[in-house]
Amino acid sequence: MDSYLVIIGYMLNSFVHVGLFCWLVMFAVGHMSLAYLLGAFSSKFLKVNPNIPALMVLSILPDIDIAIETFTGLSLHRGPTHSMFFTLIIFAPFLIIYGKRTVPYFLAYVSHFLIGDFFIGGRLQLFWPLLKDNFGFFEAGFLYINIYSIVNIAVELSLLFVAIVVLAKTRDYHVFFSGNKSNLVLVIPIVTVLLPTFIGYPFSAPLFVFLPLIGLAHLFFLTLFGGSILKVVYVSVKKRF
Predict the structure, then answer these.
(1) 18 Cβ partners below 8 Å, 6+ apart?
(2) Do 120 and 25 meet the contact criterion of CB atoms below 8 Å apart?
(3) Which pLDDT score, from 0 to 100, does residue 132 have?
(4) Dist. CA 65–CA 82, nearest whole Å
(5) Buried b / exposed e across 141-171, counting CB within 10 Å, b at 16+?
(6) If we measure between CA atoms, which residue out of 15, 59, 57 comes closest to residue 34?
(7) What are the residue boundaries of the structural domains of the chain, listed by start?
(8) Separation of alpha carbons 196 and 213, rounded Å
(9) Distance from CA of residue 136 to its chain's centroid?
């Protein structure tokens, strides 16, 4: 368990700078629900068994470019980590070695910018470094959709509802209470994109105050992920004693 904690701690050092900026586009609820659904449907089609917590963490991973900006001063947000060209290079070795088992993880990662950020916010350098042009729903000549718009809120809550139904029907929710040490990776979304909403950061007030339904959605994931981590701790302590 100690090795897992070291890895999680190292990742949190970067992610804590990331998650607090994810609110500029799509809420974590939408990213994680969408990633799970794509992972669930693709894994059923491909007959593979991906790590569900990892899928959800991958859905917020592209915004690690903000942490890189913080440490380097370079302007990279929605550039390399939001680029299909760059993503294909990173995932190519895994696709070659692990084949179809990599596909759900790939879909979870690219869903962040190809679907979430593309329609909400835009301004994506999808083909960096080949092209530095910005792409998005708005850039294509359509309506600009703000994160606080009723359209985005309705879409994110709908994705969460469908995700909960699929979790229940497939019994995938059991994965979160398996006590598997790999579930410790869920500390990342808890610290970077879930807990901050309850103290009002980076907003002027807690999310529950001005967007109570989105706040409840975050509470759902916080409870699920928190319970999962507590189960890992319980199992580990029980084994030692």
Answers:
(1) 60, 63, 64, 66, 67, 192
(2) yes
(3) 83
(4) 9
(5) eeeebebeeeebbebbbebbeebbebbeeee
(6) 59
(7) 2-240
(8) 16
(9) 19
